[in-house]
Every structure is written in structure tokens, then in C-alpha cells.
Amino acid sequence: MEFNKIFAAVLLAGIIGMATGIVADILVSPEPLHENAYKVDTSAVASAPAAGAEQAGPSIPPIAPLMAAADPAKGQALSKACTACHTFEKGGANKVGPNQWNLVDAPMGHKDDFNYSAAIKKKHEEGAHWTYEELNEFLAGPKAHIPGTTMTYAGMKSEKDRADLIAWLRTNADTPAPLPSPDAAPAGGAAPAGGQAPAGGSEQAPKSGG
Predict the structure, then answer these.
(1) Diameter of the chain by CA atoms?
(2) Are 120 and 109 in contact (CB under 8 A)?
(3) Listed GO molecular functions (predicted)?
(4) Among residues 167, 124, 163, which one has the least CA distance to residue 146?
(5) Greater model confidence, 111 or 191
(6) What is the pLDDT of residue 17?
(7) Alpha helices per DSSP H over the chain
(8) How far is it, in rounded angstroms, from Cα 203 to Cα 43?
(9) Is the distance from CB of 189 to CB of 159 less than 8 angstroms?
């Protein structure tokens, strides 16, 4: 008898529990949330610029105003730091970098006997030239101005030193390129057709090198 009472009590408790669950489901009908319980303001994130998407800073000051007073002799002294990788005389051999005779006013990547980096080859295909301003910006920071170049030189920070060096490079040619006018445009202008310097010595005269 006692066992039957216990069994009946357990069975009754189970029935009551099931009935309670059914009634609860009927009385409470859960619905999915249509929006987050906690709202997060994402407007600040959406308006923030993506990493690395900042506008590039202004280019360095143009070198053209300094060229008339630049000192080729001082530039020659500065060039000694470059002789480990380059030669500068006419017909000189290529080293780690190409020979730099007739550098100012020649197309980028113009030497057929030197294997330029892919970055310089691309510039050559685009018709880019080593204008005074291109040389200025490249000498200030080769990898910053032409990403992908294999030139390991960190850059020449002094604007006057760059002007002196470019003035000396200009003399290393059968016919030195015309000096740029003081108000010549910075790097980025199109090179004149045929690689010739325009009348008046615009800085858009093409250049060569690697």
C-alpha cells in the first residue's frame, strides 16, 4: 500500500508539472527581439577614416627656386657618398645601381643594360621622366616617392644639398639640361613630348636613372 501511495504521488507531481508547462506556453508567447536591448552608437565609428586612408601630406618644397644659385662643386663632394652604388662618368659601368651620366632630362629607366626595379620599369612605361622636381623628391626619400624601388638610400634631408647635387648631376651630360625657371611647377607635371626640355628650362624636362 505504501508503495502505491508513493508511486501515485510521483505520478501526480509529474502530471502537475506538465500541465503547468502547457499553461505557461499558452499564457506567454515569446517573440524574437526586433532590435538590440542595448543600443550602441556607431556613428563615431562610421565617420572615422579607415586606417591608412589619411590624405597624403603636402609634397616637399620645389627645388626650382634654388637651382640658379646651387653649387655644382659642393654637389660633386656630396656625390662621393653615392659612388658605392653608382658611376657618373660617360660610359661608366653599372654597379648595384645604374650609371648616372646624363641623369637630368632623361626618361626613368632608360638604360637598356640595367635591370631596373619593377617600380621604375612601370614609371618608364608610363613615360615618366627625371625632372628637377622628380629628382628632388626622389633624393629626399626614394622609397617614399617611388614605393617599390630597390634603392636603399634613406634620403638627403637638406634641400640645399639636394639642389647642389642635382646641379652637379646636370653638368654630367654632353649638353646640360636647361635650368628650371624659379616658379616651375613641382613634380607631377607631364614631361614634354620627345623627352626634350621646353623653352625657358621648365622643370618638366625629363630625367633618367634608377
Answers:
(1) 125
(2) yes
(3) electron transfer activity; heme binding; metal ion binding
(4) 124
(5) 111
(6) 63
(7) 2-27, 43-47, 64-67, 72-79, 118-125, 132-140, 142-145, 159-171
(8) 46
(9) no
Question: 78 near 170, Cβ under 8 Å?
Answer: no
pLDDT for 198 equals 34
User: Which triple of cell numbers denotes residue 126?
Assistant: 608610363
Per-residue model confidence as pLDDT tens digits over 102-139: 999 899 999 999 999 999 999 999 999 999 999 999 99
Please identify which residue in the block is written with the cell numbers 527581439: 33
Q: What is the pLDDT of residue 46?
A: 44
Q: Which CATH superfamily includes the segment(s) 63-172? A: Cytochrome c-like domain (1.10.760.10)
**Residue 115: all three cell numbers together:** 635591370
HSE-CB at 41 with a 13 A cutoff on CA atoms is 3
Mean pLDDT of all residues belonging to the chain: 78
| Burial track 92-111 (b if 16+ CB lie within 10 A, e otherwise) | eebeebbbbbbbbbbbbbbb
Distance between CA atoms of 127 and 194, rounded to whole angstroms? 10
Query: Which residue is listed with cell 536591448?
Result: 37
Would you list the domain boundaries of the chain?
A: 63-172
* Spatial separation of the C-alpha atoms in residues 59 and 108, rounded to whole Å: 20
CB 192 within 8 A of CB 204: yes
